[in-house]
Write a structure and sequence with these properties.
binds cobalamin, alpha/beta, TIM Barrel, 18 helices, 2 domains, single chain, six-stranded parallel β-sheet, binds iron/sulfur cluster, seven-stranded mixed β-sheet
Length: about 500
Protein backbone atom coordinates (compact mmCIF):
# COMPACT_ATOMS: atom_id res chain seq x y z
CA UNK A 1 0.00 0.00 0.00
CA UNK A 2 1.29 3.46 -0.86
CA UNK A 3 0.80 6.81 0.92
CA UNK A 4 -2.53 8.66 0.54
CA UNK A 5 -2.87 9.57 -3.10
CA UNK A 6 -6.37 10.78 -4.01
CA UNK A 7 -9.23 12.20 -2.00
CA UNK A 8 -12.45 10.41 -2.87
CA UNK A 9 -15.85 11.54 -1.64
CA UNK A 10 -18.69 9.03 -1.87
CA UNK A 11 -22.29 10.15 -1.41
CA UNK A 12 -25.44 8.14 -0.77
CA UNK A 13 -28.45 10.28 -1.78
CA UNK A 14 -31.75 10.14 0.12
CA UNK A 15 -34.06 7.31 -1.01
CA UNK A 16 -36.76 4.86 0.06
CA UNK A 17 -35.35 3.28 3.19
CA UNK A 18 -33.84 5.94 5.39
CA UNK A 19 -31.25 4.73 7.86
CA UNK A 20 -30.21 1.74 5.75
CA UNK A 21 -26.48 1.91 5.20
CA UNK A 22 -25.43 1.46 1.60
CA UNK A 23 -23.41 -1.74 1.51
CA UNK A 24 -22.18 -1.11 -2.03
CA UNK A 25 -20.65 2.23 -1.03
CA UNK A 26 -19.10 0.69 2.08
CA UNK A 27 -17.41 -1.91 -0.11
CA UNK A 28 -16.17 0.74 -2.55
CA UNK A 29 -14.85 2.87 0.31
CA UNK A 30 -12.90 -0.09 1.70
CA UNK A 31 -11.49 -1.02 -1.70
CA UNK A 32 -10.30 2.55 -2.39
CA UNK A 33 -8.80 2.89 1.07
CA UNK A 34 -6.88 -0.33 0.52
CA UNK A 35 -5.36 1.31 -2.57
CA UNK A 36 -4.06 4.12 -0.40
CA UNK A 37 -6.70 6.77 -1.16
CA UNK A 38 -8.36 8.95 1.46
CA UNK A 39 -12.11 8.27 1.50
CA UNK A 40 -15.12 9.93 3.11
CA UNK A 41 -18.75 8.87 2.81
CA UNK A 42 -21.55 11.40 3.20
CA UNK A 43 -24.67 9.42 3.99
CA UNK A 44 -27.59 11.64 3.03
CA UNK A 45 -29.91 8.65 3.25
CA UNK A 46 -29.53 8.64 6.99
CA UNK A 47 -31.92 10.53 9.20
CA UNK A 48 -29.49 10.36 12.07
CA UNK A 49 -27.12 13.15 11.11
CA UNK A 50 -27.46 16.89 10.45
CA UNK A 51 -28.64 18.91 7.46
CA UNK A 52 -27.71 17.57 4.05
CA UNK A 53 -26.55 20.85 2.55
CA UNK A 54 -24.11 21.63 5.34
CA UNK A 55 -22.63 18.14 5.34
CA UNK A 56 -22.06 18.14 1.62
CA UNK A 57 -20.57 21.64 1.71
CA UNK A 58 -18.25 20.65 4.53
CA UNK A 59 -17.10 17.58 2.61
CA UNK A 60 -16.46 19.69 -0.49
CA UNK A 61 -14.22 22.03 1.54
CA UNK A 62 -12.07 18.95 2.07
CA UNK A 63 -11.24 19.22 -1.67
CA UNK A 64 -12.09 15.80 -3.16
CA UNK A 65 -10.41 14.81 -6.42
CA UNK A 66 -13.20 12.37 -7.25
CA UNK A 67 -16.87 12.33 -6.30
CA UNK A 68 -18.84 9.06 -6.51
CA UNK A 69 -22.62 9.12 -6.15
CA UNK A 70 -24.70 6.00 -5.72
CA UNK A 71 -28.06 5.50 -7.42
CA UNK A 72 -29.89 2.93 -5.31
CA UNK A 73 -32.61 1.98 -6.02
CA UNK A 74 -33.25 2.77 -9.68
CA UNK A 75 -36.10 5.26 -9.51
CA UNK A 76 -37.08 8.84 -10.37
CA UNK A 77 -36.28 10.26 -6.94
CA UNK A 78 -32.81 8.75 -6.62
CA UNK A 79 -31.87 9.72 -10.19
CA UNK A 80 -32.98 13.29 -9.48
CA UNK A 81 -31.23 13.40 -6.11
CA UNK A 82 -27.99 12.07 -7.62
CA UNK A 83 -28.17 14.60 -10.46
CA UNK A 84 -28.70 17.44 -8.00
CA UNK A 85 -25.64 16.45 -5.98
CA UNK A 86 -23.53 16.16 -9.14
CA UNK A 87 -24.69 19.57 -10.33
CA UNK A 88 -23.95 21.17 -6.97
CA UNK A 89 -20.45 19.73 -7.04
CA UNK A 90 -19.95 20.84 -10.63
CA UNK A 91 -20.86 24.43 -9.78
CA UNK A 92 -18.82 24.44 -6.53
CA UNK A 93 -15.70 22.64 -7.72
CA UNK A 94 -15.75 22.73 -11.51
CA UNK A 95 -13.13 20.51 -13.12
CA UNK A 96 -11.21 20.09 -9.87
CA UNK A 97 -13.49 17.16 -8.95
CA UNK A 98 -14.24 14.29 -11.34
CA UNK A 99 -17.90 13.34 -10.97
CA UNK A 100 -18.87 9.68 -11.35
CA UNK A 101 -22.08 7.73 -10.67
CA UNK A 102 -22.77 4.03 -10.16
CA UNK A 103 -25.09 1.51 -8.54
CA UNK A 104 -28.17 -0.43 -9.53
CA UNK A 105 -29.70 2.67 -11.18
CA UNK A 106 -26.93 2.58 -13.77
CA UNK A 107 -26.39 -1.19 -13.93
CA UNK A 108 -29.95 -2.15 -14.89
CA UNK A 109 -29.61 -0.13 -18.12
CA UNK A 110 -26.25 1.65 -18.46
CA UNK A 111 -27.11 3.73 -21.55
CA UNK A 112 -30.41 4.89 -20.08
CA UNK A 113 -28.70 5.56 -16.73
CA UNK A 114 -26.10 7.75 -18.44
CA UNK A 115 -28.83 9.63 -20.30
CA UNK A 116 -30.66 10.26 -17.05
CA UNK A 117 -27.51 11.68 -15.49
CA UNK A 118 -26.73 13.78 -18.57
CA UNK A 119 -23.80 16.20 -18.48
CA UNK A 120 -23.97 16.39 -14.66
CA UNK A 121 -21.78 13.24 -14.55
CA UNK A 122 -18.40 12.93 -16.21
CA UNK A 123 -18.67 9.15 -16.16
CA UNK A 124 -21.12 6.41 -15.17
CA UNK A 125 -20.02 3.00 -13.89
CA UNK A 126 -22.04 -0.17 -14.30
CA UNK A 127 -21.66 -3.58 -12.68
CA UNK A 128 -19.40 -4.15 -9.69
CA UNK A 129 -17.60 -0.97 -8.82
CA UNK A 130 -14.57 -1.90 -6.70
CA UNK A 131 -12.10 -2.49 -9.52
CA UNK A 132 -13.65 -0.05 -11.98
CA UNK A 133 -13.67 2.90 -9.61
CA UNK A 134 -10.09 2.14 -8.53
CA UNK A 135 -9.04 2.31 -12.18
CA UNK A 136 -10.95 5.55 -12.70
CA UNK A 137 -9.21 7.12 -9.70
CA UNK A 138 -5.80 5.96 -10.95
CA UNK A 139 -6.51 7.49 -14.37
CA UNK A 140 -7.51 10.71 -12.73
CA UNK A 141 -4.30 10.83 -10.73
CA UNK A 142 -2.30 10.14 -13.87
CA UNK A 143 -4.16 12.94 -15.65
CA UNK A 144 -5.43 10.60 -18.39
CA UNK A 145 -8.81 10.58 -20.14
CA UNK A 146 -11.63 8.22 -19.26
CA UNK A 147 -11.98 6.38 -22.56
CA UNK A 148 -11.58 2.62 -22.68
CA UNK A 149 -12.22 1.76 -19.01
CA UNK A 150 -14.19 -1.49 -18.84
CA UNK A 151 -17.49 -1.17 -16.98
CA UNK A 152 -18.10 2.50 -17.80
CA UNK A 153 -20.50 4.45 -19.95
CA UNK A 154 -20.35 8.13 -20.85
CA UNK A 155 -22.04 10.70 -22.97
CA UNK A 156 -20.04 12.19 -25.81
CA UNK A 157 -21.04 14.47 -28.64
CA UNK A 158 -21.90 11.50 -30.86
CA UNK A 159 -24.14 9.91 -28.22
CA UNK A 160 -23.70 7.29 -25.51
CA UNK A 161 -20.40 5.40 -25.46
CA UNK A 162 -20.58 2.12 -23.59
CA UNK A 163 -17.33 0.35 -22.85
CA UNK A 164 -17.13 -3.44 -22.54
CA UNK A 165 -18.37 -4.96 -19.27
CA UNK A 166 -15.82 -5.68 -16.59
CA UNK A 167 -15.61 -9.35 -15.57
CA UNK A 168 -17.14 -10.03 -12.16
CA UNK A 169 -14.73 -10.34 -9.25
CA UNK A 170 -13.94 -14.05 -8.93
CA UNK A 171 -12.48 -14.16 -5.45
CA UNK A 172 -14.73 -12.24 -3.06
CA UNK A 173 -12.35 -13.03 -0.19
CA UNK A 174 -9.87 -10.70 -1.89
CA UNK A 175 -12.10 -7.71 -1.05
CA UNK A 176 -11.54 -5.86 2.22
CA UNK A 177 -14.44 -5.76 4.70
CA UNK A 178 -16.93 -2.92 4.08
CA UNK A 179 -15.73 0.36 5.63
CA UNK A 180 -18.85 1.60 7.42
CA UNK A 181 -16.64 3.57 9.80
CA UNK A 182 -15.99 6.01 6.95
CA UNK A 183 -19.69 6.98 6.84
CA UNK A 184 -20.50 10.27 8.55
CA UNK A 185 -23.66 8.62 9.92
CA UNK A 186 -21.84 5.84 11.76
CA UNK A 187 -20.43 6.24 15.24
CA UNK A 188 -19.03 3.74 17.71
CA UNK A 189 -22.10 1.49 17.65
CA UNK A 190 -24.36 0.09 14.96
CA UNK A 191 -27.71 -1.42 15.89
CA UNK A 192 -27.88 -3.49 12.72
CA UNK A 193 -24.87 -4.66 10.77
CA UNK A 194 -25.56 -5.39 7.09
CA UNK A 195 -23.39 -7.85 5.19
CA UNK A 196 -23.27 -10.06 2.12
CA UNK A 197 -21.52 -13.42 2.18
CA UNK A 198 -22.11 -14.10 -1.52
CA UNK A 199 -23.15 -12.27 -4.67
CA UNK A 200 -25.71 -13.30 -7.26
CA UNK A 201 -28.11 -16.17 -7.82
CA UNK A 202 -28.25 -18.66 -10.69
CA UNK A 203 -32.03 -19.04 -10.77
CA UNK A 204 -34.45 -17.54 -13.22
CA UNK A 205 -37.55 -16.19 -11.43
CA UNK A 206 -39.40 -14.14 -14.02
CA UNK A 207 -39.70 -10.98 -11.94
CA UNK A 208 -36.14 -10.79 -10.58
CA UNK A 209 -33.57 -8.19 -11.60
CA UNK A 210 -30.65 -10.32 -10.50
CA UNK A 211 -30.29 -11.78 -13.97
CA UNK A 212 -29.47 -8.33 -15.30
CA UNK A 213 -27.22 -7.45 -12.39
CA UNK A 214 -25.14 -10.61 -12.05
CA UNK A 215 -26.03 -12.66 -15.15
CA UNK A 216 -27.19 -15.66 -13.14
CA UNK A 217 -23.75 -16.21 -11.64
CA UNK A 218 -23.07 -17.07 -8.02
CA UNK A 219 -19.88 -16.33 -6.12
CA UNK A 220 -19.35 -16.80 -2.45
CA UNK A 221 -16.92 -15.91 0.30
CA UNK A 222 -15.26 -18.61 2.35
CA UNK A 223 -16.76 -19.38 5.77
CA UNK A 224 -13.49 -18.27 7.39
CA UNK A 225 -13.66 -14.89 5.69
CA UNK A 226 -17.35 -14.45 6.57
CA UNK A 227 -16.84 -15.30 10.23
CA UNK A 228 -13.77 -13.07 10.40
CA UNK A 229 -15.93 -10.12 9.27
CA UNK A 230 -18.60 -10.98 11.82
CA UNK A 231 -16.02 -11.10 14.62
CA UNK A 232 -14.48 -7.83 13.48
CA UNK A 233 -17.88 -6.11 13.18
CA UNK A 234 -19.03 -7.38 16.56
CA UNK A 235 -15.93 -5.96 18.27
CA UNK A 236 -15.82 -2.73 16.28
CA UNK A 237 -19.53 -1.81 16.12
CA UNK A 238 -21.05 -3.88 18.92
CA UNK A 239 -24.12 -4.52 16.79
CA UNK A 240 -27.38 -5.83 18.23
CA UNK A 241 -28.27 -7.79 15.13
CA UNK A 242 -26.62 -8.92 11.94
CA UNK A 243 -28.49 -8.84 8.63
CA UNK A 244 -27.24 -11.18 5.93
CA UNK A 245 -28.62 -9.75 2.68
CA UNK A 246 -27.49 -12.52 0.33
CA UNK A 247 -29.71 -13.37 -2.61
CA UNK A 248 -29.03 -17.03 -1.91
CA UNK A 249 -27.12 -17.62 1.31
CA UNK A 250 -27.43 -21.41 1.13
CA UNK A 251 -26.92 -22.22 -2.55
CA UNK A 252 -23.80 -24.11 -1.47
CA UNK A 253 -25.33 -25.60 1.64
CA UNK A 254 -22.10 -27.07 2.99
CA UNK A 255 -20.63 -23.56 3.05
CA UNK A 256 -23.65 -22.11 4.85
CA UNK A 257 -23.55 -24.97 7.35
CA UNK A 258 -19.86 -24.37 7.95
CA UNK A 259 -20.57 -20.68 8.69
CA UNK A 260 -23.20 -21.79 11.24
CA UNK A 261 -20.86 -24.35 12.79
CA UNK A 262 -18.08 -21.79 13.13
CA UNK A 263 -20.47 -19.34 14.83
CA UNK A 264 -21.43 -22.08 17.27
CA UNK A 265 -17.87 -23.34 17.91
CA UNK A 266 -16.56 -19.84 18.49
CA UNK A 267 -19.48 -19.08 20.81
CA UNK A 268 -20.11 -15.77 19.09
CA UNK A 269 -23.59 -15.66 20.53
CA UNK A 270 -24.94 -13.25 17.95
CA UNK A 271 -28.47 -12.70 16.68
CA UNK A 272 -28.80 -12.69 12.92
CA UNK A 273 -31.47 -12.55 10.23
CA UNK A 274 -31.76 -13.79 6.67
CA UNK A 275 -34.31 -11.26 5.44
CA UNK A 276 -33.77 -11.60 1.71
CA UNK A 277 -34.97 -15.15 1.70
CA UNK A 278 -33.36 -18.53 1.76
CA UNK A 279 -34.37 -20.91 -0.98
CA UNK A 280 -36.65 -23.66 0.23
CA UNK A 281 -34.86 -26.32 -1.81
CA UNK A 282 -31.75 -25.82 0.31
CA UNK A 283 -33.43 -26.37 3.68
CA UNK A 284 -32.82 -29.67 5.45
CA UNK A 285 -33.52 -30.54 9.10
CA UNK A 286 -29.78 -30.42 9.87
CA UNK A 287 -29.35 -27.02 8.24
CA UNK A 288 -32.40 -25.66 10.07
CA UNK A 289 -31.00 -26.95 13.36
CA UNK A 290 -27.66 -25.28 12.69
CA UNK A 291 -29.36 -22.01 11.79
CA UNK A 292 -31.23 -22.04 15.07
CA UNK A 293 -28.24 -23.02 17.17
CA UNK A 294 -25.97 -20.43 15.58
CA UNK A 295 -28.35 -17.55 16.38
CA UNK A 296 -30.61 -17.19 13.34
CA UNK A 297 -33.56 -15.24 14.72
CA UNK A 298 -35.56 -15.02 11.53
CA UNK A 299 -35.50 -16.17 7.94
CA UNK A 300 -37.66 -15.23 5.05
CA UNK A 301 -38.75 -17.70 2.38
CA UNK A 302 -39.40 -16.38 -1.11
CA UNK A 303 -42.76 -18.08 -1.59
CA UNK A 304 -44.25 -15.41 -3.90
CA UNK A 305 -47.55 -17.22 -4.55
CA UNK A 306 -49.17 -19.87 -2.37
CA UNK A 307 -51.48 -21.08 -5.11
CA UNK A 308 -49.91 -24.14 -6.79
CA UNK A 309 -51.59 -23.43 -10.13
CA UNK A 310 -50.25 -19.92 -10.60
CA UNK A 311 -47.01 -20.61 -8.69
CA UNK A 312 -45.88 -22.74 -11.65
CA UNK A 313 -45.56 -19.64 -13.87
CA UNK A 314 -42.89 -17.97 -11.72
CA UNK A 315 -40.11 -20.27 -12.99
CA UNK A 316 -38.57 -20.47 -9.55
CA UNK A 317 -36.85 -23.75 -10.34
CA UNK A 318 -38.15 -25.32 -7.13
CA UNK A 319 -41.36 -27.12 -6.31
CA UNK A 320 -44.34 -25.74 -4.44
CA UNK A 321 -44.16 -28.75 -2.11
CA UNK A 322 -40.53 -27.98 -1.32
CA UNK A 323 -41.56 -24.60 0.03
CA UNK A 324 -44.27 -26.09 2.23
CA UNK A 325 -41.76 -28.64 3.51
CA UNK A 326 -39.05 -26.04 4.15
CA UNK A 327 -41.44 -23.89 6.18
CA UNK A 328 -42.38 -26.92 8.30
CA UNK A 329 -38.70 -27.84 8.77
CA UNK A 330 -37.69 -24.33 9.84
CA UNK A 331 -40.65 -24.06 12.20
CA UNK A 332 -39.86 -27.44 13.73
CA UNK A 333 -36.31 -26.28 14.38
CA UNK A 334 -37.59 -23.10 16.04
CA UNK A 335 -36.40 -20.64 13.37
CA UNK A 336 -39.00 -17.86 13.04
CA UNK A 337 -40.03 -17.93 9.40
CA UNK A 338 -41.76 -15.35 7.27
CA UNK A 339 -43.05 -15.77 3.75
CA UNK A 340 -42.39 -13.14 1.13
CA UNK A 341 -45.48 -12.92 -1.08
CA UNK A 342 -46.19 -11.07 -4.32
CA UNK A 343 -49.63 -10.07 -5.53
CA UNK A 344 -50.31 -9.72 -9.23
CA UNK A 345 -47.77 -11.96 -10.95
CA UNK A 346 -48.62 -13.32 -14.44
CA UNK A 347 -51.79 -15.42 -14.76
CA UNK A 348 -53.07 -14.48 -11.28
CA UNK A 349 -56.54 -13.09 -10.52
CA UNK A 350 -58.35 -11.93 -7.40
CA UNK A 351 -59.79 -15.43 -7.02
CA UNK A 352 -56.41 -17.15 -7.39
CA UNK A 353 -54.87 -14.71 -4.89
CA UNK A 354 -57.59 -15.42 -2.35
CA UNK A 355 -56.81 -19.13 -2.70
CA UNK A 356 -53.16 -18.27 -2.05
CA UNK A 357 -54.12 -16.36 1.10
CA UNK A 358 -56.20 -19.25 2.38
CA UNK A 359 -53.38 -21.71 1.71
CA UNK A 360 -50.90 -19.49 3.48
CA UNK A 361 -53.15 -19.09 6.49
CA UNK A 362 -53.10 -22.83 7.03
CA UNK A 363 -49.31 -22.67 7.41
CA UNK A 364 -49.65 -20.26 10.34
CA UNK A 365 -46.69 -18.05 9.55
CA UNK A 366 -46.13 -14.34 9.17
CA UNK A 367 -46.09 -12.99 5.66
CA UNK A 368 -44.95 -9.84 3.91
CA UNK A 369 -47.10 -8.87 0.93
CA UNK A 370 -45.90 -6.83 -2.00
CA UNK A 371 -47.63 -5.65 -5.14
CA UNK A 372 -45.78 -6.92 -8.18
CA UNK A 373 -43.51 -4.43 -9.96
CA UNK A 374 -42.32 -5.41 -13.45
CA UNK A 375 -38.75 -4.08 -13.62
CA UNK A 376 -37.48 -3.25 -17.10
CA UNK A 377 -35.23 -6.00 -18.40
CA UNK A 378 -37.18 -8.85 -16.78
CA UNK A 379 -39.40 -11.43 -18.46
CA UNK A 380 -42.19 -10.17 -16.28
CA UNK A 381 -41.87 -6.72 -17.88
CA UNK A 382 -42.07 -8.29 -21.35
CA UNK A 383 -45.14 -10.27 -20.30
CA UNK A 384 -46.94 -7.16 -19.10
CA UNK A 385 -46.06 -5.33 -22.31
CA UNK A 386 -47.79 -8.13 -24.24
CA UNK A 387 -50.68 -9.09 -21.97
CA UNK A 388 -51.51 -6.05 -19.86
CA UNK A 389 -51.17 -2.30 -19.71
CA UNK A 390 -48.84 -0.11 -17.72
CA UNK A 391 -50.60 2.45 -15.54
CA UNK A 392 -47.48 4.02 -14.06
CA UNK A 393 -43.73 4.00 -14.57
CA UNK A 394 -42.35 1.09 -12.49
CA UNK A 395 -39.18 3.07 -11.73
CA UNK A 396 -40.63 5.62 -9.34
CA UNK A 397 -40.16 5.94 -5.62
CA UNK A 398 -43.83 5.34 -4.95
CA UNK A 399 -43.84 2.21 -7.15
CA UNK A 400 -40.87 0.91 -5.19
CA UNK A 401 -42.87 0.92 -2.00
CA UNK A 402 -44.47 -2.17 -3.60
CA UNK A 403 -47.83 -0.80 -2.53
CA UNK A 404 -48.78 0.70 -5.90
CA UNK A 405 -50.55 -1.04 -8.72
CA UNK A 406 -48.43 0.01 -11.70
CA UNK A 407 -50.04 -2.26 -14.30
CA UNK A 408 -53.10 -4.40 -14.71
CA UNK A 409 -54.56 -7.10 -16.95
CA UNK A 410 -58.13 -7.73 -18.13
CA UNK A 411 -58.45 -10.71 -15.77
CA UNK A 412 -56.96 -8.89 -12.76
CA UNK A 413 -57.92 -5.21 -12.98
CA UNK A 414 -56.45 -2.46 -10.84
CA UNK A 415 -59.27 -2.30 -8.27
CA UNK A 416 -59.07 -6.05 -7.66
CA UNK A 417 -55.33 -5.84 -7.20
CA UNK A 418 -55.70 -3.23 -4.45
CA UNK A 419 -58.50 -5.26 -2.91
CA UNK A 420 -56.31 -8.36 -2.79
CA UNK A 421 -53.42 -6.39 -1.33
CA UNK A 422 -55.40 -4.85 1.52
CA UNK A 423 -57.14 -8.10 2.32
CA UNK A 424 -53.75 -9.74 2.62
CA UNK A 425 -52.35 -6.87 4.60
CA UNK A 426 -55.16 -6.82 7.10
CA UNK A 427 -54.85 -10.56 7.64
CA UNK A 428 -51.15 -10.79 8.10
CA UNK A 429 -49.62 -7.53 9.13
CA UNK A 430 -51.91 -5.90 11.63
CA UNK A 431 -50.03 -6.16 14.92
CA UNK A 432 -46.59 -5.13 13.85
CA UNK A 433 -47.78 -2.13 11.86
CA UNK A 434 -50.51 -0.98 14.11
CA UNK A 435 -48.52 -1.14 17.33
CA UNK A 436 -44.87 -1.47 18.14
CA UNK A 437 -43.52 -2.20 14.67
CA UNK A 438 -39.85 -2.19 15.42
CA UNK A 439 -39.96 -3.98 18.75
CA UNK A 440 -42.40 -6.65 17.76
CA UNK A 441 -41.19 -7.74 14.44
CA UNK A 442 -37.51 -8.20 13.81
CA UNK A 443 -37.84 -8.72 10.07
CA UNK A 444 -39.50 -5.34 9.59
CA UNK A 445 -36.96 -3.34 11.56
CA UNK A 446 -35.73 -1.56 8.48
CA UNK A 447 -38.89 0.52 8.11
CA UNK A 448 -38.92 4.14 9.18
CA UNK A 449 -41.41 5.28 11.81
CA UNK A 450 -43.31 7.48 9.35
CA UNK A 451 -43.66 4.52 7.01
CA UNK A 452 -45.02 2.38 9.82
CA UNK A 453 -47.55 4.97 10.94
CA UNK A 454 -48.86 5.46 7.41
CA UNK A 455 -49.15 1.71 6.99
CA UNK A 456 -50.90 1.44 10.34
CA UNK A 457 -53.56 3.91 9.30
CA UNK A 458 -54.26 2.03 6.08
CA UNK A 459 -54.21 -1.32 7.80
CA UNK A 460 -56.50 -0.28 10.62
CA UNK A 461 -58.84 1.33 8.10
CA UNK A 462 -59.15 -1.99 6.31
CA UNK A 463 -59.02 -4.13 9.41
CA UNK A 464 -60.81 -7.47 9.35
CA UNK A 465 -62.57 -7.95 12.72
CA UNK A 466 -62.50 -11.74 12.85
CA UNK A 467 -58.71 -11.61 12.95
CA UNK A 468 -58.66 -9.65 16.22
CA UNK A 469 -58.09 -12.59 18.62
CA UNK A 470 -55.17 -13.87 16.55
CA UNK A 471 -53.69 -10.38 16.28
CA UNK A 472 -53.97 -9.75 20.01
CA UNK A 473 -52.42 -13.11 20.81
CA UNK A 474 -49.56 -12.51 18.40
CA UNK A 475 -49.07 -9.00 19.76
CA UNK A 476 -48.93 -10.20 23.36
CA UNK A 477 -46.51 -12.98 22.50
CA UNK A 478 -44.22 -10.63 20.57
CA UNK A 479 -44.30 -8.04 23.35
CA UNK A 480 -43.31 -10.63 25.96
CA UNK A 481 -40.53 -11.89 23.72
CA UNK A 482 -39.30 -8.34 23.14
CA UNK A 483 -39.13 -7.71 26.89
CA UNK A 484 -37.29 -11.00 27.46
CA UNK A 485 -34.87 -10.16 24.69
CA UNK A 486 -34.17 -6.74 26.11
CA UNK A 487 -33.54 -8.12 29.56
CA UNK A 488 -31.22 -10.76 28.08
CA UNK A 489 -33.45 -13.69 29.12
CA UNK A 490 -34.16 -14.64 25.54
CA UNK A 491 -31.91 -14.39 22.56
CA UNK A 492 -34.52 -14.62 19.83
C1 LIG B 1 -29.20 -5.78 0.22
C2 LIG B 1 -30.29 -5.14 -0.57
C3 LIG B 1 -31.07 -4.19 0.05
C4 LIG B 1 -30.85 -3.76 1.47
C5 LIG B 1 -29.64 -2.83 1.52
C6 LIG B 1 -28.89 -3.13 2.77
C7 LIG B 1 -27.63 -2.42 2.79
N1 LIG B 1 -27.25 -2.17 3.97
O1 LIG B 1 -27.03 -2.09 1.77
C8 LIG B 1 -32.15 -3.01 1.83
C9 LIG B 1 -33.10 -3.88 2.57
C10 LIG B 1 -32.00 -1.75 2.61
C11 LIG B 1 -32.71 -2.79 0.46
C12 LIG B 1 -33.70 -1.89 0.29
C13 LIG B 1 -34.28 -1.68 -0.92
N2 LIG B 1 -34.11 -2.42 -2.03
CO1 LIG B 1 -32.73 -3.71 -2.24
N3 LIG B 1 -31.47 -5.01 -2.62
C14 LIG B 1 -30.51 -5.49 -1.91
C15 LIG B 1 -29.76 -6.55 -2.72
C16 LIG B 1 -30.25 -7.93 -2.29
C17 LIG B 1 -28.25 -6.50 -2.64
C18 LIG B 1 -27.65 -5.12 -2.80
C19 LIG B 1 -26.24 -5.11 -2.28
O2 LIG B 1 -25.97 -4.61 -1.22
N4 LIG B 1 -25.35 -5.73 -3.00
C20 LIG B 1 -23.96 -5.80 -2.63
C21 LIG B 1 -23.23 -4.55 -3.03
C22 LIG B 1 -21.76 -4.72 -2.81
O3 LIG B 1 -23.51 -4.36 -4.41
P1 LIG B 1 -24.27 -3.07 -4.96
O4 LIG B 1 -25.11 -2.44 -3.96
O5 LIG B 1 -24.86 -3.38 -6.27
O6 LIG B 1 -23.02 -2.09 -5.23
C23 LIG B 1 -22.07 -2.38 -6.22
C24 LIG B 1 -22.35 -1.75 -7.58
O7 LIG B 1 -23.71 -1.47 -7.79
C25 LIG B 1 -21.49 -0.54 -7.61
N5 LIG B 1 -21.96 0.69 -7.01
C26 LIG B 1 -22.88 0.91 -6.08
N6 LIG B 1 -22.94 2.20 -5.75
C27 LIG B 1 -22.01 2.83 -6.47
C28 LIG B 1 -21.62 4.16 -6.49
C29 LIG B 1 -20.59 4.53 -7.33
C30 LIG B 1 -20.14 5.94 -7.36
C31 LIG B 1 -19.96 3.58 -8.16
C32 LIG B 1 -18.89 3.98 -9.05
C33 LIG B 1 -20.36 2.25 -8.13
C34 LIG B 1 -21.38 1.89 -7.28
O8 LIG B 1 -20.36 -0.95 -6.88
C35 LIG B 1 -20.79 -1.71 -5.75
C36 LIG B 1 -19.73 -2.68 -5.35
O9 LIG B 1 -19.48 -3.62 -6.35
C37 LIG B 1 -30.22 -6.20 -4.16
C38 LIG B 1 -30.22 -7.33 -5.14
C39 LIG B 1 -28.85 -7.47 -5.74
N7 LIG B 1 -28.37 -8.66 -5.76
O10 LIG B 1 -28.23 -6.50 -6.13
C40 LIG B 1 -31.60 -5.62 -3.90
C41 LIG B 1 -32.16 -4.60 -4.87
C42 LIG B 1 -31.05 -3.70 -5.32
N8 LIG B 1 -33.11 -3.87 -4.05
C43 LIG B 1 -34.17 -3.53 -4.67
C44 LIG B 1 -35.22 -2.78 -4.12
C45 LIG B 1 -36.47 -2.65 -4.95
C46 LIG B 1 -35.11 -2.20 -2.88
C47 LIG B 1 -36.11 -1.23 -2.20
C48 LIG B 1 -36.68 -0.19 -3.11
C49 LIG B 1 -37.18 -2.09 -1.52
C50 LIG B 1 -38.15 -1.26 -0.70
N9 LIG B 1 -39.32 -1.07 -1.20
O11 LIG B 1 -37.83 -0.77 0.35
C51 LIG B 1 -35.26 -0.62 -1.08
C52 LIG B 1 -34.56 0.69 -1.47
C53 LIG B 1 -33.38 1.00 -0.60
C54 LIG B 1 -33.08 2.44 -0.38
N10 LIG B 1 -31.85 2.80 -0.14
O12 LIG B 1 -33.92 3.27 -0.40
C55 LIG B 1 -34.13 -4.00 -6.10
C56 LIG B 1 -33.76 -2.83 -7.01
C57 LIG B 1 -34.86 -2.42 -7.93
C58 LIG B 1 -34.56 -1.10 -8.51
N11 LIG B 1 -35.49 -0.62 -9.30
O13 LIG B 1 -33.56 -0.50 -8.28
C59 LIG B 1 -33.05 -5.13 -6.03
C60 LIG B 1 -32.30 -5.34 -7.34
C61 LIG B 1 -33.76 -6.43 -5.57
C62 LIG B 1 -34.52 -7.13 -6.67
N12 LIG B 1 -34.06 -8.30 -7.08
O14 LIG B 1 -35.51 -6.67 -7.12
N13 LIG B 1 -32.14 -3.57 -0.48
S1 LIG C 1 -34.23 -17.24 -6.22
FE1 LIG C 1 -34.43 -15.13 -5.47
S2 LIG C 1 -32.59 -14.07 -6.13
FE2 LIG C 1 -32.72 -15.98 -7.29
S3 LIG C 1 -33.72 -15.43 -9.22
FE3 LIG C 1 -35.31 -16.10 -7.80
S4 LIG C 1 -36.01 -14.23 -6.77
FE4 LIG C 1 -34.05 -13.75 -7.78
Amino acid sequence: MSATRAKVLLVDPPSVSPNELNLGLASLAAALRAEGHAVRVVDLNSLRTGRAKGRLAEALDWGPDVLGVSVFPACDVTYAAARKILETVRSERGERTLRVVGGVGISIDPAEGARRMGPAADLCLYGEGERTLAEVVERRLAGGGMAGIAGTVRIEEGGVVREAPRPLIKNLDSLPFPAYELFDSVGERMAEYPMMTSRGCPFNCIFCLNKTLTQRTFRHRSPENVVAEIEYARDRFKFDALYIWDDHFSLVRERAERVCRMLIERKLNIRYYLPDGIRADSVTPEFARLLKESGCAGASIGFEDANPETFAHIQKGEKYEEIIQAIATLKAAGVPVRASMVIGLPHTTLTSTRVAMENLKKLKIHAEWYLAIPFPGTEFHDWVTKHGRFLEDPLTLRALTFRRVVFDTPEFPKADRYRAFYEAFAHYSFPEYAFYGKVCNPLTQQRSKVDKYILSIFTVARYIPERLPAHLWSLARDAVLAVLRRTGLART
